[in-house]
Amino acid sequence: MSKIVICPKCNSEYTYENGTLWACTQCFFEWNPEELKASEEQASKVFDANGNELQNGDSVVVVKDLPVKGMPRPIKAGTKVKNIRLTDGDHNIDCKIDGFGAMALKSEFVKKS
């Protein structure tokens, strides 16, 4: 009995092996499992505005003024943020900023320092 492989596009369990590729009978998507793993690993990495890879515990600098809901002033460009934590989701950096408290930032608005 062969193992069940789930389609990455439609999550169907009705897939079959077609040479080196896998194919889905529901959405007709074909994929190479090795290429899919490599692209998932690349997608899980977080990059700053300059394309540098970020890690937990890094220090970053905000590159543009960021308005904050409920606060009278924005986070100014040039604000240094220490000891970031990477998360999944749209705002992929959790951190604490002096004067603002705990915040979630997008990696596209920071650069590694």
Structure description:
This protein is mainly beta. It folds into 2 domains: 1-44, N-terminal domain of TfIIb; 46-112, SH3 type barrels. It is 11% helix and 30% strand. The chain is built from 1 helix and 11 strands; from the N terminus they run βββαββββββββ. It has one helix at residues 33-44, and strands spanning 15-18, 21-24, 30-31, 46-47, 53-54, 60-62, 80-81, 85-86, 93-97, 101-105, 110-112. The longest helix is centred in the middle third of the chain and has 12 residues, at 33-44. The relative contact order is 0.16.
CATH superfamily of the largest domain: SH3 Domains
CATH topology of the largest domain: SH3 type barrels
Span between termini = 53 Å
Mean pLDDT, rounded to whole units? Answer: 89
Order of helix and strand elements from N to C terminus: EEEHEEEEEEEE
Query: Based on CA inertia axes, which overall geometry fits?
Result: elongated
Tell me the domain tally: 2
Q: Which regions are unreliable across 5 or more consecutive residues at pLDDT < 50? A: none
Class inferred from helices and paired strands: mainly beta
CATH architecture of the largest domain: Roll
Number of helices: 1
Beta content comes to 25-35%
Strand order of the largest sheet: 1-2-3
Q: What is the share of helical residues?
A: 10-25%
Number of beta-strand segments: 11
The major sheet is characterized as: 3 strands, antiparallel
If you compute it from the alpha carbons, what radius of gyration comes out, rounded to the nearest whole angstrom?
Answer: 20 Å
CATH class of the largest domain: Mainly Beta
